[in-house]
Each structure stands twice: as structure tokens, then as C-alpha cells.
Amino acid sequence: MIYRSFFFFLALRVLLLLGTVTAVAYGIINDNYFIILGGLLLTVISVVSMYRFVAKRFVEIDDFFEAVKYRDFSRWFSEDRGSDDIRKLHKGFNLVNNTFRDINNERQAQFLYLQKILEIVNVGIVAYNLESGEVLWLNDSLLSTLDLPSFKNVSFVEKRRPIIFEKLFETYHSTNNSLKLDLHDEQLKVLVSGTIFQVDETAFKLIAVQNIEKTLNQNEADAWKKLLSVMTHEIMNSIAPISSLSETLHKQVENEIKDPGGYKLDLEDLDSGILSIRKRSEGLMKFAKTYRTLNKVSQINRSRILINDLFENIQRLLLPSLQQKDIVIEFKNTNPRLEVNIDVHLIEQVLINLIVNARHACEGREEPKIVVSAEKFRDGIQIKVTDNGVGIPEEILETIFVPFFSTKKTGSGIGLSLSKQIMMLHNGRIQVHSKEGRGTVMSLIF
């Protein structure tokens, strides 16, 4: 350690000084002038040596403190000249300087990051000295919102816009407050919040101003676009199988008209198909009404239905479109008495979404197949939609229920997110298990 080397040489000089003083005292006692003169000379040399030894180190320390005082951390102290303890002392000084330089660089980087953030955020920010009014920081967003040129003191705003100054700077907004500001011939809606902080003995005030009128208008426009996208997606999912089933029934009727004797029209199939179209149309109407107020729905129109009846409705509706794609669909339920308490129209919509997704996943696969099954699950019911399609990549499994996320070029990313909402309304949940290249299992748990 540095102090050990210093104390060793200092103790050596102290011992040498004691020795010379002792020699002088011995010469005085024995009246030996040669010893007295020699002792005095050595004493003076020892004192000067000790003074220089100690003074040199204090000068080095004083130089270091002077550099610290003026924050000059660029100075370099030589580590290869002088005594061993001086070199170690210089090494310690350089280490401290490097540490301070690293701290300053880190602070400057953080300040630069903060500057860039404040410059790009869409919120006006100003910080100023409460006593003098001198501006510590403001960004372009504030100047743009208030239609002001750059200023160094908030007194400028007081002179130019006294009413705005009173509302923003004189009034303390501890929480987010909505204000209306008169700018020229227009009225601007802004959200204002403020806080007071202290640095050493100086108090500063920070004010944030956000133009919420523009944000609200943009959010409203985005909401309309998303709503139209949702409605289009869900309506198309229901219209497609209705159209396919209608086309099948139309061909049967057309064949009967063209060849009454050679083709026998199956009235039961015709009646069953028309009934499916009517039910799905009613379900689509119910969906449109429910989705319109989905965020306000606290109760749903539950009714008990046999799983077999639910499966039969879905099968009649989707079988023709799946057969056109040469995709096999199979419904499994080992318990014919198994029933579930649900909003039938909404859960039909969920199952349609899942089966349509499975159909897309199975297109182009060898022996494509979709299995819809139901079983008892703990204290409830579980309905599974299983396919042998392409599967879902593991890296996007966590995002498939995010609204408007879709892997399909023409997809809107609505079906699964809406299905999840519907299941939440039923106090249920939807789960997914998938292996890329092997298929997917979507589970509805009630």
C-alpha cells in the first residue's frame, strides 16, 4: 500500500533525525566540538530531507485537489518517475481521474439521451427557475403547441400571452388537468400537469403540455378504421359459408327445375340448409349488435345447449366450403348428453373463426383434416379444434391474440382477439398448443 512505503521512509528519516540530535547532545555533554558540529550539520540535512520528503507529497496532493476543484480530470500524473510511493500515489490519482471521467461521460450520455427523448416526444415540456424565471429546458413541441418562438425566460410568455401564462405557469397543476387555450382565432384543448423539484437551494418547476385535441381526433379516426376492419372480417367469415351453402342449395333446386324426373330434390336437405342459413344470419345480426357494445356488456344471453346440437349447426354451415377445399372435418363427442351453458350465437362465431383459421392452415397439406371434439374438463367443458396444418411458429405464439396481429397477407388480426374477448365474457379462456409443421390445437375451456 502507498501509506506503508511513505511511513517506512518517514520513520527512517525520523530515526536519523533522532540520531543526529542525540549526537549533538552527546557532544555538548562531553565538550566535543567536532561531534557537536558534525551532529548539527547532519541534523540540518535530516530536517531539510524530511521537509522535502513530506512537502513533495503534499504538493502532489495539493495539485490533485486543485485539479479536482476546477474539475480538470484530463490531467495525467506520471507513473514511471519518482520514488515508489510517488508512483503509486500518481497511479491512485489517475485512477480517480479516470473514474470521474467515466462518470462525466455517462452523465453526458444520459443527458444527451434525455435531450433526444424530450425533442421527439409529442408532449410540450418546459422546466424553469421558480425565482428568476430562467428556462432550464424546453422542447420544440411546447413552442409548436403554444405557437411561440424560442425564449430564455418565462417572462416572455407573460408579456406575449398573459392569459396562457396565468393558466399554465401561475396555476399549479399537481394532476392532469384539461384546459382550453385561446390561440389566435382557435381554441385548443390541452392536458397540463406540473411538478416542483429542488436542486441544492434552487427550486424549479416542470410543466408538461399535451395537445389532446389532435390526439383525440386521431384516436377517433383510428377507432373507426379498426371497427370497420373488425366488422368486415367477422361478416366475411359468416357470409362465406352462407354463400357456399346457398350455392349448393341453388344447384340442387336448379337441377330439379331442369330435370324434374331425373333428379330428386331432397327436401330435408333443402330445409336443413335454409335453417342453417337463417340461424347463421340471426347469429350474425346478434354478433353485430353485441360487438357494437362489447366493452359495455357485463352479461351475455346464456342458454343450455347440447354439444351435439352445437356441432350439428356448425357442421351444416361449414361442411360445403370445406368439401370444396377437399378438407375433411370430423366432430367428436363421446357423451351425447354433454351440454354447455353459453351464448350460442357468440360461441358459434368463435368456432367459425377457429375452423376457418384451421382451414387456411391445412390448405396444400397432404390429407388435410380438422377435428372438433368436446369432453369434460375438471369442473367444466373443453372444446378443441385440432388440425394437421402448418402450425404456428413458436416466436409468435404469444402474439396471436394481440388485436390486429396477423400472419396472413389479407388478415386483419381480429378473429382470435375477438374470440378471446368472447371467452372472457363467458368467464372461460382460450388456449393454443402448436408445433410448426405438425398442426395446432385451439382449446375453448368453459
TrEMBL record:
Gene3D superfamilies: Histidine kinase-like ATPase, C-terminal domain. Keywords: ATP-binding, Kinase, Membrane, Nucleotide-binding, Transferase, Transmembrane, Transmembrane helix, Two-component regulatory system. One of its GO terms (molecular function) is protein histidine kinase activity. Residues 230-446 form the Histidine kinase domain. The keyword Iron does not apply. InterPro entries: HATPase_C_sf, HATPase_dom, His_kinase_dom, Sig_transdc_His_kin-like_C. It comes from the Bacteria. CDD domains: HATPase. The keyword Transmembrane applies. Its EC number is 2.7.13.3. One of its GO terms (biological process) is phosphorelay signal transduction system. The chain crosses the membrane at residues 33-54. It catalyses: ATP + protein L-histidine = ADP + protein N-phospho-L-histidine. This is histidine kinase. It comes from Lentiprolixibacter aurantiacus.
